[in-house]
Amino acid sequence: MVSRQQVSGVENIPADGGFIAVANHLSDLDSLTAMRSIVDAGIPIYSLTKSSLFRVPVLGSVLRAGGQIPVQRSSSAASGSLAEAERVLRAGEAVMVFPEGTLSRDPLKWPMTGKTGAARLAMATGVPVLPMGQWGAHMILDTYSVRLRPLPRKDVRVRIGEPLDLSCYGSDVTDREAVRECTAEIMRAVTGLVEELRGLKAPRPFDLKYDGDPGRRRVGVRRPDPVEPEEARSDLGAHLGEESA
């Protein structure tokens, strides 16, 4: 009623077996648009959903009836959510994960650096990761906004990429470097699809550790890009040359 959803790349969805679908996250609505893209292709999908939504009247009942997986954020119970997701994947089902862990805080609306949950699941189970990029749902309900803009109907576009084989990173989820690199590859694939949808080249990922956490339900501010090592050496060489002169 409020959107015209256009999905490309449906042929990339695995026909059988478990897989992890991953997507960027800009709006409280786009978790639904991403999952709808898979369900419309005839494949049921589960999601990792923040536990507070299970306490919302009606919605909580729907989530429980659909077998969605509650996530206890910032809690030791969070590992239990990953264990349940792993069980679902090993049973041959699909799981939706938003690897940023929250709505993007990037003021330019690009995907942020990812958290490691999707990579850990992929490494532990060996299932493929299906990258997805989406754009448009935030025009109906913007990031961290409470103002719904249903009219006129908005175009919501979803692009599904080819499945990622991440077996090169092994299965040892205690290998922090492998998990970090696997996470980065997942986010590069998602960002590439968003670039295609927007027709723009993405800047470096917004990083909560580098750019700073703006606080709950707030969009952040980008710091200047860090100086690359080669640039730093060039600047140092120029500075030393000036001193010699």
Task: Give the arrangement of secondary structure elements.
Layout: E1 3-8, E2 19-23, H1 30-39, E3 45-50, H2 59-65, E4 69-71, H3 78-90, E5 94-97, H4 117-125, E6 129-135, E7 154-160, H5 176-198, H6 208-211, H7 229-244
Parallel strand pairs: 1-7, 2-5, 2-6, 3-4, 3-5
Antiparallel strand pairs: 6-7
Bin the strand percentage.
15-25%
Q: Which class do the helix and strand fractions yield? A: alpha/beta
The number of helical segments is 7
The low-pLDDT segments are 239-245
Task: Say what the CATH topology is.
Answer: Glycerol-3-phosphate (1)-acyltransferase
How many structural units, i.e. domains?
1
Q: What does the average pLDDT come to?
A: 89
**Class in CATH?**
Alpha Beta
User: How is the main sheet built?
Assistant: 7 strands, mixed
Name given to the CATH homologous superfamily: Glycerol-3-phosphate (1)-acyltransferase
Shape: globular
Helix fraction by DSSP (H/I, runs of at least 4): 25-40%
GO molecular function, one term: acyltransferase activity
Domain Phospholipid/glycerol acyltransferase: 19-137
Keywords: Acyltransferase, Transferase
Protein name: 1-acyl-sn-glycerol-3-phosphate acyltransferase
